[in-house]
Amino acid sequence: MSDAPGRNDSRAGLSRRQFLKGSGVTAATAALAGTAEAVVQAATADKTKEKTESMGPGPVALTLDVNGAKMETKVEPRVTLLDTLRNHLDVTGCKRVCDRGTCGACTVLLDGKPVYACTTLALEAQGKKVRTAESLVDGDKLDKVPAAFVKADAQQCGFCTPGFVVSMYAAFQANPSAGPGEIEDALSGNICRCGTYEQMRDAIAALCKVKRKEA
Amino acid sequence: MKEIDYAAPATLTEATALLARKGARALAGGTDLIVQVRENRRDAELLVDLKNIAELNTLRFDAKEGLVLGAAVPCYRIAEHPDVRKRYPGLGDGVALIGGVQIQSRASVGGNLCNASPAADSIPALIALGASAVIATPSGTRDLIPVEKFCTGPGRTILGPGELLVHLHLPPPAPNSSSAYLRFIPRKEMDIAVVGVGVALALNDNRTACVFARIALGAVGPTPLLVPEAGAALAGRPLAEADLERAAELAQAQALPISDMRGSADYRRHLVGVLVKRALRIALQRVKGG
């Protein structure tokens, strides 16, 4: 569960490929600066511009809208939204667990839809609204979904919890009158290795204002 | 992940030019591609993000034209589309089964097809519904290929360098017709089909006999398979249990299953028979109920 690779590969500044490209050229730094500038230009170019240039593999400037705040950073195109949020922007509610689009711990909302941040490139999230579990608290007041998790003690180690909470929040946003079955279906892309599903069902029952049948 | 370049063109001309470059790969939802590149299962030097291209985001139905399904349209938009639910329910069944909610927010049917998994959940329904793939080439032409000819092997398609799947075209449904897709997996979601079956059928006006039927199988061959004999055997039949049994046997005979961790070849062949009959009953019920 090391965060180190993401941190290293995107903050190194001079990647191996660029180094090879630039080696032997005395003005390597200047050339790289030029590339970065072109890349930033391409990233912000208006749609009417005929030619779309590719950017990378070096770091590219980008602006993300995260939990309502504009955040700027530079990442290589290969860096995922998850690693960008955690390692570059210090938004650590989304967790890196499977890192292959299976477990749901990295779930964030992209324009309101739940997605795996580990299989989304940071560049793809430009111009979209990113929301993480951090957005589900206002001062000391928790949103009703995380509040129900707390009340039902629906976590053990808690590492999967932000992903579950975001998925469940999205399900209630999509259908405020959803029943427990629909909410459970909406959690199909999240996994809890501690097995706190029973307590989550209690939380869901409380949110759906239904009584749970004893199993 | 290895180093990559990235481009997000806004037009098809730019996209095909970029895709003609060495190591270029088309990126739609990325749910397969990003994992494959990270795990070195697919080589990529340049990812061409197609989501800014209007043609690839189109999803529209017209009674004359049929359904135009842009290659980058995410599954959730397809599953929610009223015309898909009403007129192409087999496609709706397939996209609603792909991955889980987070995958469906991003994954596209175009990507599912181009990833060319033999077990892809959207492909058997597309084949059964007679869908064609519309392909843009670097020279600016458009090619039209029946979906059953699009995949050439596991992970391989007919697309050449610079070629791009623009959209899928589904013909308008015949009168008194419907469709269904069923798959078997040990769990409810986030799994890969052991067997998948897509069917489409049309009945005559008084709904006493089948006019035509198309049946396609997933995960029982190197590509999703159209089994024409099984569908043809239903034409003119009242779709009694014996007719369904006959179609199931013909489909089983044409399946080319292998044994792997998801199931043995014999088990898969058995499932083909079970799922063909069930899918046909669902489609039949949908015609009669709707």
Distance between the ends of chain A: 35 Å
Largest sheet of chain A: 5 strands, mixed
**What gross morphology of chain B would you assign?**
globular
Assign a percent range to the helix content of chain B: 25-40%
- Biggest beta-sheet profile of chain B: 5 strands, antiparallel
Regions with little confidence, pLDDT below 50 for 5+ residues of chain B: none
Note the quaternary state here.
Answer: heterodimer
Helix content of chain A: 25-40%
CATH class of the domain at 60-207 in chain A: Alpha Beta
User: Distance N terminus to C terminus of chain B?
Assistant: 49 Å
Q: Roughly what fraction of the amino acids of chain A lie in strands? A: 5-15%
- The dominant shape of chain A is elongated
The first-level CATH class name of the largest domain in chain B: Alpha Beta
Describe this structure in words.
The complex is a heterodimer of chains A (215) and B (290). By secondary structure, chain A is α+β, with helices and mostly antiparallel strands. Helices cover 38% and strands 13% of the residues of chain A. Chain A is built from eight helices and seven strands, in the order αααββαβββββαααα. A five-stranded mixed beta sheet of chain A has the order 2-1-5-3-4, sandwiched between helices. In chain A, strands 6-7 form a two-stranded antiparallel sheet. Chain A is elongated. Chain A starts with a helix and ends in an 8-residue tail after the last helix. Chain B is of the alpha+beta class and 290 residues long. Chain B folds into three domains: 5-49, Uridine Diphospho-n-acetylenolpyruvylglucosamine Reductase, domain 2; 56-170, Uridine Diphospho-n-acetylenolpyruvylglucosamine Reductase, domain 3 (2-Layer Sandwich), CATH 3.30.465.10; 177-288, Enolase-like, domain 1, CATH 3.30.390.50. Helix content of chain B is 34%, strand content 24%.
